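Quick one: structure tokens for this chain, please?
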Amino acid sequence: MTAAHMRATYEVGVFGAVTVTHAMIPLLRASGDARIVNMTTRLGSLSLTATRDGINADWAMLAYNSAKSALNALTVLYANELGGSGILVNAVDPGHCATDMTGHTGSRTAAQGAAVAVRMATVGADGPTGTFGGEDGPFPW
């Protein structure tokens, strides 16, 4: 793993999210039902990663996992900053989907993976904010 590879991964997964979110905040503030849904993964969970023999043990990808941990932190920070504004901010894990990124080895289709994001994007005004979860419920940060 090189610093250049880490930078490239963070450029897309972290700085890209910040750039898009920052650009959209004025429009989101003008909306009555604004939602920010960050696509993450359980691999970004510090709690699950800290357990050396836990669920994340076989997937130690330095750049990807740490970028997703940073995205998870952004989710919490944006949720806190935008609290009370009507903008709900959450992070979702689509699960292991059969896509080009996974070499089509995933057990879920892209449509199945998208379902949790769509659900969070359309949650009512009384919905959660500052959460991290997947199809089967919440994940620890």
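Residues 3-30 form the longest helix (28 residues).
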